[in-house]
Amino acid sequence: MSVTVRTDRDSGVAVVTLDRPARHNAIDLDMAGRLADVWAEFRFDETVRAVVLTGAGERAFCTGIDRSAASDVPQPTSPYSVDDPLHSVGPKAGDLWKPVITAVNGMACGGAFYLIGESEFVIADEHAEFFDPHTTYGMVSAYESMLLAQRMPPGEVARMALMGTAERISARRAYETGLVSEVTAKGGALEAAVRCAETIAGYPAEAVQGTVRAVWAAREATRAPAYALAPHLIALGNLPPDEQAGLFGRRDGKGHRVR
After folding, report:
1. Where does the sequence pass through the membrane (predicted)?
2. CATH number of the domain that residue 125 is part of
């Protein structure tokens, strides 16, 4: 199972785990579909009042889209249309307005920001690190940068997106820039996130969900027009897939080969 769900009926908290640790929890088409199904199921499950999202293993929360998934999705030739396999992986894309807290353990990069960007807040282990590899591989960082720009100062988003795999942001720096709300000792992010979720789940659900929706209403004013532009930027700015593949084997400034 690419996504596992554990629900504590007493506390009202569901823990959703990206469960492909051998692939650094990269999102393939099966995982993308399963995530969309999970958010849809939670909409109708009154026993779930708050959600924690995390990744299996210690090395990565999520390293974005699995390259096999990217190659399996045919793209239209028109620059006005892009089929994005990650477009529906986030809880807000699934019209879920129950609070989602993300616990980041290890690497979070690229398409992971679809999930991080659509959560209420983020708690990270001290060894977590964040980066966006798009430009390194000849791809436009569009949706990812737009989501990050709603959490971090634009200059910090620009630096992360433009530096690609050459630079990684530490959990502490992510906290300083507003991407992360709490940094824990190694292995402590999930426990801290569950503790927060249990507190929130203990409050009246209508008030909690209304507050989540209020915060997102303020963000939608800028996100919606940005998202409308994203497909065009991707279609016009991405290198052809074969040229991307040629860059994909190149290592970053620290000698890492990153998906």
Report:
1. none
2. 3.90.226.10
At 100, give phi and psi (nearest 5°).
-120, 125
- The domain containing residue 101 runs over which residues? 3-188
Given 3-state DSSP classes, what are the helix, strand and coil percentages for the chain, each rounded to the nearest 5? 45, 15, 40
b/e sequence 16-51, b meaning 16+ C-beta within 10 Å: bbbbbeebbbbbbbebbebbbebbeebeeeeebbbb
Q: pTM surpassing 0.85? A: yes
Q: Which residues contact 47 (CB under 8 A, 6 or more apart)?
A: 7, 9, 12
Render pLDDT for 115-132 as a digit per residue (tens, 0 to 9).
999 999 999 999 999 999
Which of 242 and 68 is assigned the larger pLDDT? 242
In a domain, 67, yes or no: yes
* Residue 141, domain member (yes or no): yes
